[in-house]
Amino acid sequence: MNDITEALAGFELGDDSQSDDIQPLPRTTSRAMCAMAFSLEWQSADARHTDHLVARKLNLWRDILPFELEPDLIDKPVGHVARHAFAKGELIVPYQSDLCFNLSQRAFHRDLRRNNHIEPRSGRFYPRAFIGGSRGIFPEEILPFRICKASDDMICCDLNNPLADKALDVSARILDIWAAGEEHGGSCNDVAEMLTANGPGMQARWRGQPTDFWQDIPFARMAGEPDAAFYAMPRMVSHIDRTGSAQIASLYERLLPKGSRVLDLMASWESHLPAGHALGEIVGLGMNAEELAANPLFAEHRVHDLNLDPRLPYGDAEFDAVICSLSVEYLVKPFDVFAEVARVLRPGGRFIVTFSNRWFPPKAIHAWEGMHEFERPGLVMEYFLRDGAFDGLQTWSMRGLPRPADDKYADRHDNSDPVYAVWGDRT
Prior knowledge:
Blueprint: H1 4-7, E1 32-43, E2 48-59, E3 81-86, E4 100-104, E5 125-127, E6 144-150, E7 154-158, E8 168-179, H2 191-196, H3 227-230, H4 242-255, E9 262-267, E10 282-286, H5 289-293, E11 300-303, E12 319-325, H6 334-344, E13 345-355, H7 366-369, H8 376-385, E14 390-399, E15 419-426
Parallel strand pairs: 2-14, 9-10, 9-12, 10-11, 12-13
Antiparallel strand pairs: 1-2, 1-8, 3-8, 4-7, 5-6, 6-7, 13-15, 14-15
C-alpha cells in the first residue's frame, strides 16, 4: 500500500503547472520542467514509515536528482516510476559520531523565545539556536537537532539528520512534463535534501528509547471551559481542504477491509471516507448531536465526551476498525482512549489516526502545539505503544499537493494541507 502509484491513485495535477503559453512534452529531457511525486520509505525499531512529497516544478537542467535515480527519469513519459534502495549514508550524509556530544545544561538557552520557557527533554527536537555558541553553531540557526538524553547537569545533543543511519527506499513518479521557458536565474534544488531535510525521521524514537513528551503539562489546554460548552453549537466546518480530505479518503479506502464494521471516533458531519465505499456498518461517536445527525454515513451515532469519560460505550471486540480523523490533538486522556479502542476492536482490527496542521487552538493539548509537524506522528505512536495492544505500526505523510483554487486559503497557501497518519493492528 505504500507504493507511490497507489498513494496518488485518482489524483490529477490539474492546471497547477500549466498555462496557455507552456508546451507540454511527451517525455522528460535534461532541459525539461516536470512535476514528480516522491516516496521515502524507511524502517525504525517500532514502525514502518512512508513519507510522500510532491515537487510540482522541478527543473531537470538545474535541479539535482539523486544520481542513482536520474538515468531512469530522463526520456520517460508521464506515469513512469523509478525506484532505488539506498543503503545507510548513501542518499544523505552518513551518521557521524562526532556530531553527537554532551553539553552542560547551562548551554541550553531556555528563555530564547520570549515569554516561553523551554526545558530540554529526551528525544525531542529543537532549533539549533537553543545551543547557539556551542560547537560553532550560530545563534540564529534554525536547523533542528535532537536531545538524545537529558540529565540534571548534562544534555546529549545529536546534530545528525535523523535519517542518517537509515536505509532509504525512494520512488519517483512523473506527473507532468513541459518545456522550460527562458532562464532568468533561480535557485537550484537538491531533491535528496528536499526529501529528507524538513522533518522525516523525527517521528521515530532515538535508539528505541521512548521520547519524553510528558513533561511541561502536556495535556493542559488554552481553554478552560468544558468541551460540552465549546461543542454545544454545530460548526459544520471543514477541518482540512478538499485535496487533503481526498487523501485521507484514499488512505482509508486502501487500509480498511471491505465489509468492516467501523467506529468513527470523535466524529462530525463528514467522515472523510471514500464515496461509494464497500464498508459495512459505520458508527459515529462525537460531541454534537446535530453534526452527527448530518453525517449520511452513520447507521447509528452517540454523543459522548471522551475527555470527561474515556470509556467507549460499546462491548468488547465489536468493531473491525476504528478511525479518528483530525481530532487526536484534543484528547486529554489519550492512553485511556487508546486502551478502550483496543478493547472494542476485534483481534487483527485496525486503528487509523489521521491529522494535519490545522486545529482549534483553544482545545488542542499543550504538547501538540509546541512540536515540529513530524514529531506529532511520534507522539501518536507513543499512544499506540504504551500498552503493547497494537503491532504492525506504520506512519504515513503526504505533502506538496496543490491547494484547490477556490479554497478560502488559496491566496495565502499554495500547497494543500499536509496529511499525516499513524495506524496499527490489534494484537
